[in-house]
User: Fold L-lactate dehydrogenase from Paenibacillus methanolicus.
Amino acid sequence: MTSKTRKVAIIGVGLVGASCAYSLVNQSICEEIVLIGRTPERAKAHALDLSHCMDFTHARTKVRAGDVDDCGDADVVVLCAGANPIPGGTRLDLLDSSHKIYQTLIPSIMKAGFNGIFVAAANPVDLVTYMVWKLSGLPRGRVIGTGTSIDSSRLKTLLSEYVPVDPRSVSGYVLGEHGESQFPAWSHVTIGGKPILDILAQHPQRFGHLKLDDIAEKTRNAGWEILQGKGSTHYGIANAIAAIVRSILNDDYKVMAVSAILDGEYEQSDVCLGVPAILTRQGVKELVELNLTSKERQLLAYSSSVIRTAAAPLGL
Assistant:
């Protein structure tokens, strides 16, 4: 009996890429990880360090350094190569540098014979995801960005501090750009299955201090708060990447808010936005089109316009 090794290649072994590999190893998500970076010695050192985890994990994951040719038979290629946002700027400021990296890198990966699924984590992630889709020629469902998965997690964590429940008992999504124009879809946020708007309306004395606009702002600024405190965000996004990869490899059909190419959903086409998607072995199996309020649809259309405007000078 033969079985195919589940292989993940990670391109970019800075803090995000290395943390992603660490999450994959600790959660025993795949059988093989190849680390690919512009400094081979750093990739080799990370691989060696990670290999020393194996005596303490549930299952063994083979970790090694490699190059772009190793992407040929990978199931998933995770794209982490890129710069961190600069305090005082936005993620969109990184578009030019990311464009330079990926307009060369993606054709090289495809030339190696890659026929799997891309998971983009580099910023600005919605535009990088769209760029990768265009450059790769793959079907839209096989190019996924981390999108607002991390923002949705931040939202749940913040809400759990006001309404004392486990963050995993909070359900809901941040939609749109992984950036300044993102917004929580409050009409679909529930706690223990109960809409948060009903909770606030029924318990004004208990939860009157909870201001949704403040929560939305704190969610949007959470990454910047971390960036200012320690120079980068990497643990949360690494686990978000791991969750996406796990759902792909395990054919989980998990619903997550990811960067996905829209083709008529939410009245948007030929643009990449953070929306709920069903993740399977095929990549994005289907987009979940929420019944948004009129205001929420306007916010999503605005976020789409922000992304389109940023992409225009590059001809994307």
About this structure: The first strand starts at residue 7 and ends at 11.
